[in-house]
Amino acid sequence: MTEQDELLQIFISEAEELLKLAETSLMSLETAPRSSSDIDELFRSLHTLKSSAAMVGFTRISEYSHLLETLMERLRSRKLAVTKSLITSLLESIDFIKSMVDRACRGETEADPKVLDQHKERIKRYLGLEEAAPSRDEPALPASLPDTESAPGPSYYRIDLRFRNDLFHTGRDPLPVLRNLSMLGYLVRVTPDLSTLPAFYDLSLYDLYISWQVILRTDRPVSEIENVFTFVKDDNDIRIEDVTGRFQDGIDLELAGKRLGDVLLERGEITQDALAGALSRQKRLGEILIEEGKIEPGALQEVMSEQEESRALYRKTTVRVSVEKIDSLVNLAEEMGVCLAKLQTLHNRLEDPVRVSIAEEMEYLVKVNREFQDRVARVRMFPLEGTFRRFQRMVRDLAYHQNKQIKVMIAGLDTELDKEVIEHITDPLKHLVRNCVDHGIEPSAERLSAGKAAEGIVEFKAYQKEGKIFIEISDDGRGIDLEAIRRKALVDGLIQADGEMTKEVMLDLLFKPGFSTSSEVTELSGRGVGMNVVKTHLDQLGGAIDVRTEKGKGTTFVLSLPLRFALMEVLHVKVNDISFLIPMQSVLGTERSRNGLLRDMGAGSKLYRHQSGYVPLIDLLPTLDINAGPAAEMGCIIIFLDTGKRVFGISVDEILEPQQVIIKSLETNYRNVKSLTGAAIMGDGSVSLVLDLLGIEEIYFKHA
Predict the structure, then answer these.
(1) For the ranges 148-152, 238-242, 612-616, which has the lowest average pLDDT?
(2) Which of 148, 209, 366, 547 is in the most buried spot, having the most CB atoms within 10 Å?
(3) How do residues 395-438 score in pLDDT, each as one tens digit?
């Protein structure tokens, strides 16, 4: 990596952080217009960004940031009032800087000069306002809308086509093959390899010199792609690779780590000689400034020395690690824990005099390994603050576009979730937020006539429970019209006119493809796609969604999400020699079963006395649909559990020692099982299943 590449990477990382800080400060400033701390934070972010952009030669970003910095100075000196229109313009300015940074990092011009001038003129209009009245909003461009709703995307395949040199002699032609591929989807890129093409006078009209690399985007299965090569696959080198993981929103993520010249070279757009020639003519920023007399060599050298010291320190304190390496580290940590557990088992069989000394060392090693596992497992975990802040901005923009007054409340910002899970829930959260703003929150006039405050509330909340992460998105709006759902279900033929529907069944209809009670299709909703996308993504994650609503009071969506890698304190139990793990945080207590405290209610239902009342007693194996055999009886030990919804007991045969384990997702390694959160490898090498108490509760009480 060259010095310029390294400097560019540092700038990208720093610019992303500074723009996030600026956006957060603006959102906070909108709710507290006289907050000096938010104005100061915004000023510092823009000032630092201006300097950083100038250091890497991004002059347009630097100039525009300087203009915004001047505007911030007006706010600091109270010469300009904070208005909703101003906040909207500044948020759009932050978005514009983000787009300039993206373009610059792709090697493109930072911005079209005309577009840049338009944005500058808008800021200059605010700079011309002296002693602006707080109640007077200046005209602002409409807030940009989020992307329209979309279903899960297609797959991407890289196909390498290297045909034999005498292909034409066999009566085959590569062009029909390429045409047939194009009929299966969209050819994102077709790159010919001309490296074996001879000089013109050495060309043979009957030989093939060209090979191809194709990137195909398609919804078809890979078997249909293979069928295209039925008649040429045996004698030619045809390779098909699924590269869907490289693409996100249609963008090839692999290009992010490559230099422009390397990409052009790979695609055959330029030759190696052309690249070398172009690079040899490039000049560094410092050389250009000295030649133009804009800076003295001594001053430039001083800045470069300070910069090098800063880079050296940055290299010492910062490291970028791929997710694959972190996953490998997590797996190694788990295997090390299993090996230690096996060593402890072997050690307990020793009768040697040194056994006591070994035991002390083993105990210390286990303690160190537990801390190591905890720290490694948390490397992949990220707080939800960044995700919630992003949707806070989205609510603000949607409310502005619909002329609604909405306040956003956030709780649980420090709740952490696996990075991969965060990426998967972005789309579901986006659709739920749209639903709250578009369907839930009423216009101010309607709210006032209903006796509500003019300003609606959308609340984000996150917390951990039962080994899962829960995210709640709620609004205090209209609530879901269950009668409208029933009428729509009748029209669609989903129910009979004389049929009865429970509230839960009606709410489940919201997640069916194409189902929508909206009579009007807007830019945000009405197509019946969004809620189905939510359900699809959560099913893929092994998560679930619960809807709570009350007409006229609002709606709450509760997402339960699995932890891909999580350390959990568990109680190890056995039922009929089957090993299970129960999250300790739900355990209220245990006691040996006594017949005098048990009541048989018939039809398989039992109650057991706990404290001052009776609680349901669940027979675990039948509930999990595990065949326990005809003679199997309920266990002799009762474990009392609290899920937050209900208190109940389960019967087990044996309780082993509590311990800390690393949970692996069943959905990732097997398939989603509603009553199980995951699995863990125990010290003896066996696998124990981690109970999903909320899932067990739902299964039992649904059929009880």
Answers:
(1) 148-152
(2) 547
(3) 988 888 888 999 999 998 888 887 778 888 888 898 899 889 98
- Which 8-state DSSP code applies to residue 481? -
Please state the length of the chain. 704
Structural domains of the chain, count? 6
- Please report whether residue 135 resides in a domain: no
In the predicted model, what is the mean pLDDT of the chain?
A: 79
User: What pairs with residue 560 in β-bridges?
Assistant: 470, 544
The answer to whether the beta carbons of residues 635 and 456 sit under 8 Å apart is no
Q: Is the pLDDT of residue 90 over 80?
A: yes
Asked, for residue 85, whether it belongs to a domain, the answer is: yes
Residues 408 and 484 reside in one and the same domain? yes
End-to-end CA gap in the chain: 65
Does the reported pTM lie above 0.85?
no
One-letter amino acid at 31 equals: T
In the chain, the amino acid numbered 7 is L
| pLDDT at site 167 | 86
Same domain as 687, residue 612: yes
Phi, psi of 555 (to 5 degrees): -135, 145
CATH number of domain containing 397: 3.30.565.10
DSSP-derived letter for residue 61 is: H
- CB-CB neighbours of 444 under 10 Å: 17
- Which residues does residue 467 pair with via DSSP β-bridges, in sequence order? none
pLDDT recorded at residue 39:
86
* Residue 269: strand, helix, or coil: coil
Q: Give the pLDDT mean for 455-481.
A: 89
**What are the tokens at 474?**
């709620």
Both tokens assigned to 550: 């009350």
Q: What tokens appear for 74 in the block?
A: 């007006």
Q: How many CB atoms lie within 10 A of CB 694?
A: 24
**Is the domain of 197 the same as that of 210?**
yes
Write the secondary structure of 173-214 as one string of H (helix), E (strand) and C (coil).
Answer: CHHHHHHHHHCCCEEEEEEEECCCCCCHHHCCCCCCCCEEEE
- State how far the Cα of 411 lies from the Cα of 667, in Å rounded to an integer: 28
Domain assignment present for 133: no
Write phi, then psi, for 207 (nearest 5 degrees). Answer: -115, 150
Q: Do 582 and 512 share a domain, yes or no?
A: no
Please check whether residue 473 is in contact with residue 432, taking contact to mean a CB–CB distance below 8 angstroms: yes
- Asked if 416 and 537 sit in the same domain, the reply is yes
Domain with 448, as residue range(s), is: 381-562
**8 A C-beta contact, residue 626 and residue 578:** yes
For residue 8, what is the domain's CATH number? 1.20.120.160
* Domain membership flag for residue 275: no
Domain boundary pick from 562, 584, 609: 562
Separation between Cα atoms, residue 219 and residue 227, nearest integer Å: 15
401 and 540 belong to one structural domain: yes
